[in-house]
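[Q] Does anyone have a clean structure-token version of this?
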Amino acid sequence: MNVAAELLRFSDRQFYLDWWNAPTINDFWNRWNMPVHKFALRHIYRPLLKSGFSRLQASGAVFLLSAFFHEYLLSVPLAMFRAWAFTGMMMQIPYSIVVAKISKFDWKFGNTAVWISLIIGQPIAILMYWHDYYILNYMPK
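[A] Here you go.
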């Protein structure tokens, strides 16, 4: 993305922060995709807070919307709805609570939990989509 921004002379080149050092899942999501994070903060999270929602409710709403769009972006091209991405994203909420408690002892434990999520969680979701796509399109009927 930085190469494209350089070629297009896009002035705001902060697409991500140091997500690989995130001590918690919440920090990972805040550092991962800065344009989307800033959009969600500005147009969803803060307006919900001003409307009287709690921080937890506003965060949950942002995560719910993000999970919906992740699922949508997979379901449309694959022409199948399975909710694996949606479920995986929503499971990040209780996982983030556990990781936040673990990272209070030492940030390295939280960072290890973030990497476990990246190394195990996402590939499992991709394999589930691949499995279902294969069965729908290539198995004899």
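[Q] Thanks! Anything notable?
[A] The helical segments are 2-7, 25-32, 34-50, 55-78, 84-103, 107-138.
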